[in-house]
Specification:
By secondary structure, the chain is mostly helical. It contains 6 helices and 4 strands, in the order ααββαααββα. The model has no long low-confidence stretch (mean pLDDT 81).
């Protein structure tokens, strides 16, 4: 009973806060940050790492080696790929170009609500903002969010800050000192996923127009 009352009171309070923001996007983001209040504890690093038979015990050195490994893993993997024996360039492998320009139809608030509702509640981003929190405040931000996405369609610009991600290392098993036993995961912004879902829907509908 008490929890229900507290939740309703918070919803009423923050709904008023969002209403006071009006169309001021900057103030809206400040309130969103206040609502979410990230408090998740950081993931634990291994106590030591063995890199090419060199043992690292210092916490900063362990962090540096993991960062270096994941930053270079793509380049290292690419060096091991055997070049194609084909003499054709990548341009020759492409199909005919599209003569018509691609136009994305605006997303509606109702479509956006359906997309956001389908997000996993437990998923969170590098700001530790869970999707569940976005769903709770959605009635207060849906108009502004829909406007931002449609402006992105219209101008052909994806917000630069939504490209930021927090890369974390997940231990797969076996020896914790072996970097090969860790898998990197990029935590994108929840809002980045919402924008991407909007793009995906509009792009999928374009060929049928």
């Amino acid at each position: 009973m008490l929890k229900t009352l507290i939740r309703k009171t918070k919803i009423t309070y923050f709904s008023r806060r969002f209403a006071d923001c009006g169309k001021d996007i900057k103030k809206t983001w400040y309130v969103i940050k206040e609502v979410t209040q990230p408090s998740a504890s950081p993931r634990k690093l291994p106590k030591s790492l063995n890199v090419q038979n060199q043992l690292f015990l210092d916490k900063d050195q362990v962090r540096h080696q993991m960062t270096k490994f994941f930053a270079e893993v793509g380049k290292t993997t690419a060096l091991g790929v055997v070049p194609s024996s084909s003499s054709r360039s990548w341009k020759q492998l492409l199909g005919p170009s599209c003569a018509k320009s691609m136009v994305l139809e605006s997303v509606t608030e109702q479509e956006l609500i359906i997309m956001i509702s389908s997000l996993n509640n437990s998923s969170s981003d590098f700001h530790q903002i869970p999707a569940k929190s976005i769903k709770q405040i959605l009635p207060s931000i849906i108009t502004q969010l829909c406007h931002l996405i449609n402006q992105s369609f219209k101008l052909g610009i994806f917000p630069q800050r939504l490209n930021l991600a927090r890369v974390i290392a997940l231990f797969k098993g076996s020896d914790r000192e072996d970097l090969g036993n860790y898998r990197s995961i990029s935590l994108m912004s929840v809002f980045s996923r919402i924008f991407e879902n909007g793009y995906a829907k509009a792009s999928a509908e374009f060929p049928g127009r």
